[in-house]
Amino acid sequence: MSKLQQILELENIEITSKQLEQLNQFTDLLQEWNKIHNLTGAKSVEDIYPNIIDALYPYTFIEKPSSILDVGTGAGFPGMMLAIVYPQTRTVLCEPRQKRASFLKYVAMELELDNVEVAKKRVEDYDSEPFGLISSRAVTDTSMLLHLTEHLQNKMTRFLFYKGEHLFSELESVDIELNYDIIEKNQRNYLYIKG
């Protein structure tokens, strides 16, 4: 049993052997690209695995989305991870920076993720029908994320925001009523807003 598989099982994150293989491939590709392009501070396997677990933990509590938009995907967290565990779900990774967008396109091709579309643009410049789930990690505050994605949501859209300790003060500045859960794990607050 691989180290990653052990960690996933400890966290009760159940995935297929194919998905485990894709996560391991992703780890290898990220390390390879990181040597040249400096995509993320997570350089070693020991740094990458916690990011994978952080990205996938919500898989244990969210409803399966009809479609996913990940805002500011960066080196793949959480959007690419969600695309791997929801292979039948259209997943758009919105990433305006060229190097990161190129990496995401390469990973989607190498891992044969037909459900992934990489949009190399800012989310406010991206146009599509509303998404089932809008996710984001470390991009901007909750109120701004809700505002920037207004044209990509409807009353059925759910949101999954990966937040830190400032979440509670951020929620105070949101001027609309939200139906949400906060799931706390380690230093992470997962904000799951239900449509």
Note down, in words, how this protein is organized.
This protein is an alpha/beta fold. The protein has one domain (3-194): Rossmann fold (3-Layer(aba) Sandwich). The chain contains 7 helices and 7 strands; from the N terminus they run αααβαβαββαβαββ. It has a 7-stranded mixed sheet with strand order 3-2-1-4-5-7-6. α2 packs across α3. It is globular.
CATH superfamily label: Vaccinia Virus protein VP39
Q: Judging from the principal axes of the Cα atoms, what is the shape?
A: globular
Q: Would you identify the CATH architecture? A: 3-Layer(aba) Sandwich
DSSP strand count: 7
Low-confidence stretches: none
- Sketch the major β-sheet: 7 strands, mixed
**Tally of DSSP helical segments:** 7
Trace the largest sheet across and list its strands. Answer: 3-2-1-4-5-7-6
Structural class: alpha/beta
Question: Which strand-content bin applies to the residues?
Answer: 15-25%
C-alpha-based Rg, rounded: 16 Å
Give the N-terminus to C-terminus distance in angstroms. Answer: 39 Å
- Percent helix among the residues? 25-40%
CATH structural fold name:
Rossmann fold
CATH class call: Alpha Beta
Number of domains: 1
Structure keywords:
195 residues, Rossmann fold, 7 helices, 7-stranded mixed sheet, alpha/beta, 7 strands, single chain, 20% strand
List strands and helices in order, with pairings:
Elements: H1 3-10, H2 17-37, H3 45-56, E1 67-71, H4 79-85, E2 90-94, H5 98-110, E3 116-119, E4 133-137, H6 142-148, E5 158-163, H7 167-172, E6 179-185, E7 188-194
Parallel strand pairs: 1-2, 1-4, 2-3, 4-5
Antiparallel strand pairs: 5-7, 6-7
Helix pairs in contact: 2-3
